[in-house]
Amino acid sequence: MLAILGILSAIWLLVLVGTVLIFHFIIPLSLFHSFFLNSIVKALLSGILVLIWLGVFIGLTNAFVRNYIVQKPIESSQ
Amino acid sequence: MFDIEFFLLKALLLGGISFLTCFFGTFWLIGYLKSKNMTVMDYFKANKPQIPRPAGPAIVGAIALGELALFVINGSYAALALLLVTLICGIIGIVDDFHTLSGYVKTALLLAGGLPIIAIQYLVPNAHVFNPHFYLPLYSVPTNIPLIYPLLVIVAIPVTSNTINTIDVLNGVASGFTLIALVPVGFAIGLRVALGKGNPGTFLLMVPVLAATFAFYYFHRYPSKIFPGDSGALALGAAYGALAITGGVEVVAVIAILPAIMNSFFFLSSVRRLIEHRKIKNRPTAVLEDSRIVATKDPKAPVTLVRLITATKPLSELQIGKEIFKLAAFTALLAGITAVLTWVIVIGK
Questions:
Q1: A9 CB near a chain B CB, below 8 Å?
Q2: Angle of helix B148-166 relative to helix B229-247, nearest 10 degrees?
Q3: Nearest-neighbour CA in chain A from B121: distance (Å)
Q4: Nearest CA in chain A to B288
Q5: Does the beta-carbon distance from B303 to A11 stay under 8 Å?
Q6: Is the ipTM of this complex over 0.90?
Q7: Global pTM?
Q8: Which of these, B340, B332, B349, lies nearest to B142 by C-alpha position?
Q9: pLDDT tens-digit map of B262-271
Q10: Does A4 sit within 8 Å of B308, measured CB to CB?
Q11: φ and ψ at residue B286, rounded to 5 degrees
């Protein structure tokens, strides 16, 4: 149960952190004079951040969950 | 000026209509389905009893009647949209109950579930079904996404309806889980109204859904006297998704059903395709002689929430249900905190 609560908490924190990163740091960026170019850059950076987040999260949790289920010994029944 | 007494009266009326419709409708369906031998085996019980299924028509009818009453009383087009979304997804579920649809076909059909929301918003003047201003936690300014939001609506309904459907694995779980998830959604809507960022009428949208789910839970809780079937589970999920959209509490609603999303996510990433759970050959769990459920060690079996919960020790169906409700309560708390972080505590401009 603790493992599942940990995964749920991690997802929730990542949503909050992702929101802060994207909307407080990436969106206010103004690297170019062109509005169009700035929009492209912001969309790309946000997309890359989300993909990295998803990739790391999917990889780690899948590996953890599979190990947790397959390797964890089952307690003897009471 | 806001008349609280009239508001409470409307809430009681809507809740009463939906609760009584679902309660007596489900009661009648139990007898009717048994008389027609429309039952399925309760797999996790020692004596493998036959349980009537589906209760979807009662759930769909109750939510639809309640939302129709709200549309008539308040002229709320959001209620009409929610009614139609629930109806469409409930009908798709009924078809699936009697002629099992493939995962891809069902998902494609469920895309139509979001269409009433879009259609009414853009075809009916001043309908105000949803607001394309997307509120995010810790960010004071809502993000206006007028082009992307309708696409998210179309995708959201199949996601929420399938998510609740995939958590319908044990007695009472789908309805109990939805009940718990509705608490932070109601809190978030109430918070928006209290802070002047929402219409009090939006809160009434939730009442028929809550009342119908509560009435159904009475029969669905362990040991179940009736199963919701795909019609009931898809309708509940669709109503939940439509409520999140019309109430403008999308992120809170997603956080509240995280355990179910996690269940769907792990299942999909394990099997890597949309497949009916009945067609899975490598079982994620096994039933012991004393009816307790334990996770299998088969590395090819899909990862599911129940498999995770029973990974360390066998548990009875009732115990697993309680563990799922504890997880739902935990994410409901996180969703409530998210609501506060979205509309009360914000950073920046």
A1: yes
A2: 140
A3: 27
A4: A77
A5: no
A6: no
A7: 0.91
A8: B349
A9: 888 888 777 7
A10: yes
A11: -130, 155
